[in-house]
Every structure is written in structure tokens, then in C-alpha cells.
Amino acid sequence: MDTVFAGLSQGFAVALNPINFFYVIIGCFSGTLIGALPGIGPINGVAILLPIAYSAGLPPESALILLAGIYYGAEYGGRVSSILLNVPGDAGAVFTTLDGNPMAKKGEAGRALSLSAVASFIGGTISVILMTLFGPLLASVAIHFNPSDYVALMVFAFTCLASLVGKNPIKTLLAAVMGLMIASIGIDANTGVARFTFGIPDILAGIDFLVIVIGLFGMGELITLVEHQVTGKLAVLPVGKSFVSWKDLMVTKWVILRCSLLGFFIGVLPGTGASVASAVAYGTEKRIAGKSGESFGTGDIRGLAAPEAANNGSAGGAMVPMLTLGIPGSGTTAILLGALLLFNVTPGPLMFVQRPEIAWGLIASMYIGNIALLIINLPLVGFFARLLTIPQKYLTPLIAVLAFIGVYSVVSNPFDLYMIIGLGVFGWLLRKLGFSLAPVILGVVLGNLFEDNLRRALSISGGDWMILIESGRSIAIYVLTALILFVPPLVSSLRRRAATNAATSEA
Amino acid sequence: MKLNRFAATALLCTSLIAGSAFAATIDKPECVAPAKPGGGFDLTCRIAQTGLKDQLQELMQVTFMPGGIGAVAINMFNTTRTDDPNAIVAFSSGSLLNIATGKYGEWTENDVRWLATAGADFGAVVVRNDSKFKTLAELMDAFKQGESTVVVGAGGSVGSQDWMKAALLIKSIEKDPKKMRYVAYDGGGDAITGLLGGSIEVYFGDVGEMVSHLGTGTMRVLAVMSPDRLPAPFAEIPTTKELGYDAEWTIMRGYYMGKNVSDDAYNAWVEKFKAAYATEEFAKIQKEKGLLPLNMAGKEFDDDVKKRVDRMRGIAKEAGLIQ
Prior knowledge:
The structure holds 2 protein chains of 2 kinds.
Chain A: H1 2-15, H2 18-36, H3 42-55, H4 60-85, H5 94-105, H6 109-143, H7 147-162, H8 169-183, E1 186-187, E2 194-195, H9 209-230, H10 246-268, H11 274-289, H12 301-325, H13 331-342, H14 351-354, H15 356-385, H16 392-411, H17 414-432, H18 438-461, H19 472-506
Antiparallel strand pairs in A: 1-2
Helix pairs in contact in A: 1-15, 2-4, 2-15, 3-4, 3-13, 4-5, 4-6, 4-12, 4-13, 4-15, 5-6, 5-12, 6-10, 6-12, 6-15, 7-11, 7-18, 7-19, 8-18, 9-16, 9-17, 10-11, 10-12, 11-12, 11-19, 12-13, 16-17
Chain B: H1 2-17, E1 30-33, H2 40-51, E2 61-64, H3 71-79, E3 87-92, H4 93-100, E4 112-128, H5 136-145, E5 151-154, H6 161-171, E6 181-184, H7 188-196, E7 202-206, H8 207-214, E8 219-224, E9 250-258, H9 263-277, H10 280-288, H11 299-318
Parallel strand pairs in B: 1-2, 1-3, 5-6, 5-7
Antiparallel strand pairs in B: 3-9, 4-7, 4-8, 4-9
Helix pairs in contact in B: 4-11
Transmembrane segments (chain A): 20-40, 52-74, 112-138, 150-166, 172-191, 203-226, 255-282, 323-346, 358-382, 394-411, 417-450, 471-491
Domain DUF112 (chain A): 22-442
Keywords (chain A): Membrane, Transmembrane, Transmembrane helix
């Protein structure tokens, strides 16, 4: 523990150095903007700025502090367009649209933006604290998380999906199946056979998750807007001067705490990142809320706080295996890892000994960065909210252009631009038919991980299904799954009975 | 628009004043990495970007064109950008294997102009430090008991070059690669996690990615799949060949151009690469990026690639990947 505090104080000395402090602020600020633009997320932000930072001759610790600032800053910023425009700012912000946008539609844009900023701040800060204290320990647990444990985790996640079943279970299930089908497109890793590609080379490696998110959600939303405009149904959004209240924070405090922890742990696991974290967080919270969770999806503050705390928690978590083991936990950390190697710094346990100024400097900068992000974001709430006063006829094409540029900057393939339009029309049709899009996205995110890990587990065991319940971790997760499945309904029915008992005894 | 024309004129003037040593000048050089940022193709393009910095008037742009394991890029350079004189595309021996196994559809090794190499990397047989396999011979003995006695894994699908490394090794003792217990991970990072976590016993990786793990004492390289011993820090590690197993896997990284690029433009690039190869700077960049020198450009390289694809077709057929 002493070494942790000694390291941390050395880190703060590095991070509070005026130049580095400046880079923290710049990184966080530009990260927020990058995250807020639809389509452009942390991965392209970091990838674009890495060569610039390198050729500008920044020392490695400054460059890393800057790039990491962009990374977690973008997780903050992703919520802005999710809430205001119903267009996810990046892949991890899909679930923020579900309750964030209905709040904006009710004129509570300011409240939604400020609450989610606080949730993001807590998620981010908790994950940095956990990383500081238990980083190496957690990383060694995370690498022992084997394919069958991932299968258990996915079963848990799918159980949460069950909580999204709204008024129409059949449509929810159909939507999830569509997601699973989209997930199976591309070359199958276990046999090398191309599935559902119909001879189109552009989808041999599957459809990029960003393309699905921007297409189904973003373009689908824009088409809906245009339709409303044409039919004259477009309501002018009220922009109130609402702000997060102390009461809101009290209502959501446990949600934020739980989801920060959940997001952090999912982030630590290699292969699962912000999108899985926010999806699982949203589903779990809806389950836990029980009967009162029916307001999820209509502008419930708990449904907004959950995914935001989780996706920022996961950004910190993903840093753990990168820093302590030299293994990237997500796409963006893979680029940060590349940045370390570019500067001739070997990531892993030795980095804390050989280059403590980089390792601890980065960690310390994340404490400062999270506070800076909160300070940057809260005053900007009013400014962002005023975006809604831009007339729709200007706003819609502007978002469309930004989304196209954003996607093209990641995929550089015109085919995917057509695909966004196609998926947009598909998403719009689904909405017209009363389908919810969230299960589709969950199917895509979880389907891939579920299939890959199930087949990995079975390749390891040589086809023996018992491998799935061999480890204590898997069994623990299955127990948790059973709890989340049965306890909330039980509790609410007990409560109801108690209430009726009370009512009868009073009478 | 005006600015562009001005820039173009200015550039033309500079290149005239500088005395055009080559018939064709390279304008707005671009390296296309047919993948998302951060992977091996990104690295290949960064080598061209920094390695050719002194040879080109402008800094080379790196653009990304992911999709279809590189098929999207080869498609593009066979349909719309077939004669683009300013763009080069990164490839690796994995792309050549895809050509050999027909994954790129109608496009073959004769549909692009192979330009130059970035360097080479080699397959590595890796185990955890506390593994029961102390030598390659012990591992191979286990395989002799039965192909499925050992759980192996790598970062690519069945039929990818990562799988090929394992398949070649098993074939070298007359065993059937299809009976392997092969676990396909999504990239080398995940596979290393699987190895350290004990899900798999042997990881078939690349020498280059092992550089950062060598000093940590977490993993051991049983053998490298290079034709000869490698320089330090790998000098102590035996090759598969010297241990008596005929399984070699060179990962070549390099660049190609469109099929209809003029000889002038192609040769201008070849000259730039040859000039860069002669500098110490280029060798330093290769080393920094975990690659070993393998410098070839122009006709010589084009011939070599075609020979390689041919050989891979043979291996793929033997391994049962194609009919």
C-alpha cells in the first residue's frame, strides 16, 4: 500500500506540472467534443491524434496523458448527442438515448445533461480509485476469466435483456433475434467459412458495430424527424432551464454506485468494453427497480444514470490490463498500447518500476481529468441544451453530414455509407412497426461474445459441455443470474402482500 | 479550391527547382491500411510514413479502409483506383494466404503491382513460464500421442496465418491439423490473455509482439519459425528447423499498388524505397516496430510474392483448406 501512495504522489507531481496539466485539460475538452459529435468516438479521436502527438515531439508521459484524456473525455461527451438528438455520440452511448432523450423531449435536457455528467464523474472517479488500489490484483483475476466464464457472463447479460421485454414480448424477442443474426455475418472464426455474406467482400469481416449503431439509431431517428416534419407532426422541443437537483442525486445514488462498479469490472475484462457495460448496467437496474422500473424508457433518471456511470467506469477498467499486463482491454486501449510501444515504453508490470513517471503520471492525470471534465461539462450544459433551439430543418441535415463524416473517418469505405442508409430505413420501419431497437443492439453486442466464447470453451474441452460449469466463477455468475431473475419479483410481491395486509389491518 | 491549385502549383515549382530526378513525382502520398487503426496494417503504414519521410516532399497520410479482412481495399484498387500513382496499400503474408485460399474472390496475385517490403516477422511457439513443456521436443512428443492432447490457440480464425503456424508444425510430424484442439481468439492480445489465464497451453504468436513480454518472465518462446537464428534478444531461441521440424512461417509485411499504375509512377516509388533501405534510419524504425530487416522492392519483390502465393496454395491444399 505504501508503494501505491508513494507512486501516486510521484504521479501527481508529474500530472500537476503546468505543461502536463494543460494537456489533461486539452485532452478532456477535445475528448468531450469528439465524443459529442455523432459517429466520431474515442477510438478515432485517439487514432487521429496519436501521430500528431508523436510528431510534435511530446515526451511520452505528456502524450499519454493527452491521449488518455481524449479517451475518457469522449466517454463523457458521448451522452450529449444521445440525450439531445437521440443519436448515439459513440457506440458506448446507445443506452443513454433510451431515457436521456425522452427527458430532453419533456424539456428536461439540462437536468439530463447535468445528471449524466455527475454520473459519469462518479463512474470515472470510482474506476480510477479502484485501479490505483487494486489494479495489479484485478488484472491477474481478469486474465483467469476463461471462455466458459464469459459464457456465464453473457447468460447473465441475456437475463437482463429479458427485463427489456416491454408490452410486447414477441416483438422484443424478434428484435433480439435480428441482432443475433446481424452478429453472425462474416467469416466464422472456428471454421473459416463465410456466413451470410452473399459474396459481398465488404462484409467478410462482419458489419462494424459503429455502422449498426449509427445506421439503426442515428439514421433511423433522422428519417423519423423528416417524416414528422413532412407530415407536420414535428413538435417544437421545450428548452427549460432545468438542472440536476440534490433529490435526483439521492434517488440515483445507489444506481450510480452499483453501475460504476459493474462498469469497471466489465471494463477490466479483456474483450468487453463500454457497450457491454452500459447494456448490462441498464438491464440490471431495470430488473432491480422491479415494478417501478416500468418507467424505464420514458425518461427515468435511473435509466439515464445507469449506462453513463457504467460506460465511464469501464473506460478506467479497460486501462487496468493495459497498464499492468500489457494486454489491451478494448479497441481504444489497443491504440494507447501502440502509443506506449511507439515511445519505446514497455507496458506491463515492469513499467511501474522502470518508468514510474509514465505509469503513475497517467493514473494521477485521470483523477485530475475527471474533476476537470465535471467542471468543463456542467457550465456547458446550458450551451449544449441550446442546440435544441436550432430549427430542425438545419439540424437534421447537419447531424446527417456529421454522422456520414464520422463513420467514413472510421471505415473509409463508401459501401458502409450505403449500409448506414439501408440500416436507417430498416430502423425506421422497425420503429413504425412498434419494435424497440435496444434489443437489436444487445443481440449484436452479446451475440458475438456469446458465440465466440461458447465455441472457444467447447474447443478447449474437446466438445464436453461440462466445462461451462467447471469454475467457481461461472457458478457464482449463474447464481447471480438466478438472483436477479427471481428476487425482484419476489420482493415486490412480498411488498404488495405487506401493503394489503397493512391496508386490511388498518381497516 | 483556389488554395489547392496554389498548393499544387507551388509543389510543382518546388519539385522542378529541386530537379526531378525521377520521371514521375509523388503528389500527396497516401498509405492505405486495410484495417482499423492500431493493428498490423497500421504499423506497416507507419513504417512507410516515418521511413520515407526524407524521400518524399510531403508527409505521407495514413488512411484506414477496414472491412472484409483486406478484401475491401483490394477491391477498391481493382475497380476505381487501379491507376492511382500516389497511393500504396499495406499487406501482410496473411493477405497472401487469403489470395491463395480464394477469400478475395476473383482477385489474385496478378491483379495488383507488388511494390516493396516493410520488413519481416516470424512465427513463435509460446508457452507460459511455468508450462510443463520445457522444450519444443516435449511439446511435439505430446502431439505425437494425439493431436488433441494439447490445447493450442492463436489470434486468428481457422485457415488464417495464425492457424497455419500450428497446422504446419503438426503436419511436420505427419499428424492431422484438423484434429487439433485449436481455440480461435480475436487478435493476439486476447490469445495471450488466454495463455496467461490457463485457457490454452500453447500460443502461436509472432516474434515481434513478444519483445515487450520477454523481460517480464511470464512467457517462454520454445522456438521461432524463422529460417535462421534471429538477432538479440532472440539469439538464444532455437528455430523449428534446427530442432528437426520442417515448419517455417515468415510474416512478410509490405505494400502494393493498383494494377494499372504506370511504370514511371511504380518505379518512382521503388526508387524511394530503395533509397530508404540504404539508410540507418530505416533499420532503426524496423527494429522499433518489432520487425526484422527484409528489404526488397520492384521486380524482384513482385516475383518473390508470386512465388510465395504459389507455395501457400500448395500448403493450403495440403492442410485441406482448399480443394
